[in-house]
Inverse folding.
């Protein structure tokens, strides 16, 4: 799945599904009901989806977050972001142990960059805490322990082991890694 919205606002409410990779690629445009012409900056397929009921999460460059149920068959769109989210670029969406647990990051200076929900977006908690003011480009929740999170930032990789606690503490995770811009993380 990929963004289809153009920077000038044309193709609004649309994503592209690419199938049959690498043998005979084909594309399909999927029209959504997001009521926004803003570019989708983050796309995440739920790992808890089934082939017949794929759930997709979309974040925009203006801080809006959507959950798309049944994206391949009669998609239904639900805005699940918070009114407290900054009007900023959603840089990543990560899921924890279920679709109820979402970890969202923003990649702008001067905004609260880290948010988490444990109830599918009904309520959100800001989790920037002691993190310096810098863009957060990617976030990951540990698949077995949602208290542990990693983030890719403008000045290296940071981590926390108490994300779900009231006073989250972030620290550099630099075991031999330089304090350089990191755009993406993967965990295995």
């Amino acid at each position: 799945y990929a963004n289809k919205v153009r920077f000038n606002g044309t193709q609004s409410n649309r994503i592209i599904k690419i199938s049959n990779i690498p043998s005979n690629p084909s594309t399909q445009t999927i029209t959504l009901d997001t009521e926004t012409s803003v570019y989708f900056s983050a796309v995440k397929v739920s790992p808890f989806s089934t082939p017949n009921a794929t759930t997709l999460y979309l974040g925009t460059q203006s801080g809006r977050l959507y959950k798309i149920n049944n994206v391949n068959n009669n998609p239904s769109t639900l805005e699940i972001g918070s009114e407290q989210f900054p009007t900023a670029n959603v840089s990543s969406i990560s899921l924890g142990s279920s679709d109820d647990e979402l970890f969202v990051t923003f990649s702008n200076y001067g905004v609260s960059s880290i948010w988490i929900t444990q109830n599918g977006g009904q309520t959100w908690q800001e989790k920037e805490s002691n993190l310096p003011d810098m863009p957060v480009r990617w976030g990951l929740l540990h698949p077995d322990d949602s208290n542990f999170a990693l983030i890719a930032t403008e000045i290296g990789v940071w981590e926390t082991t108490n994300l779900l606690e009231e006073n989250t503490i972030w620290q550099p995770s630099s075991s031999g890694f330089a304090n350089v811009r990191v755009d993406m993380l993967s965990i295995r």
Q: What stands out?
A: The first strand starts at residue 2 and ends at 3. The mean pLDDT is 93. DSSP finds no helices and 15 strands in the chain. The radius of gyration is 17 Å.
